[in-house]
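We modelled the chain as a single entity of 314 amino acids. Its sequence is:
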Amino acid sequence: MKKISEIKGDASFREFYRKKNNRSTSIVVFAKREKFKNLLVYDSINKILNKNKILAPILYSQNYSKNYIEIQDFGKKTIFNILKKKKNKFFYFKKIVSLLNQIQSIKNRRIRNFRNKNYIIPRYEKKILIDEANLFCKWYVDKNLSKSRKKIFSKKFKMVIQRLTRDLKLKNDVFVHRDFHVSNLMWVKNQIGVIDSQDALIGNKAYDLASLIDDVRFKSSLSLKNKVFNFYVKKQKKLEIKKFKNDFEILSILRNLKIIGIFTRLAVRDRKTKYLKLIPYTWKLINLRINKNKIFIELRNLLNQDFKKKLNEN
């Protein structure tokens, strides 16, 4: 006997259902909006991950015309839930870093999708990075500043962000999940499974580590952040540490500015207000990185003009 129950959704336009059939279960992903990315691309990326011996949901069936796919169920145990209860967090982070190294070693970036067409993972161009960071202006600044101040701030902000992207040192040459954090990693039979990979691009080696360490959903100590960063660096054979650290800090700040914009958009446009409570910690993460490097002086001065209290809140 089949039984279908809805699962709590995420920040996307997707809906998730758990389908129980006797002793087995599967996940039905329904996406009427952005269905190319949320169904076809999602499965294509999963296929690439599985081909490289990385655990990702296998496709069981699809009905693209009816806006859904049915995939493997990884259960309910996220790494986020495990870390909340465990004291030895570094034990799990070491496993995650090993997984990240495996993901970053992926060479084949082309796959035949379930509509029998080639899918090639696109590059994470600087224009995408800039557009993402500008979501901070489009939504958060728009909501929090006066009309006249907004115009001045946005113009300066865009110039500063463009300069920061020009300061990135590493090539766009590795698989980047783009949302690589502990809520998107599942504990499956003593292995880590990867979900939510539909936004993957070929980009900067530092991006996924920045999203893992400076995760807005999971509060971690500075000592743990440093331990994870140093562990990753030690595992790399040919890493120019200065360049990598530079890019890590830039990408962390750009990503978290983007996140503040996205969380505001979710509240204003989509009436998903639960993400607003994460914004204060996102500011804290920006503040953590913005004081480390002189290339952020311009950005820090600009943010201090209008958001000093937010930036410096404990």
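As a brief sanity check on the tokenised model: The first strand starts at residue 2 and ends at 7. Residues 241-268 form the longest helix (28 residues).
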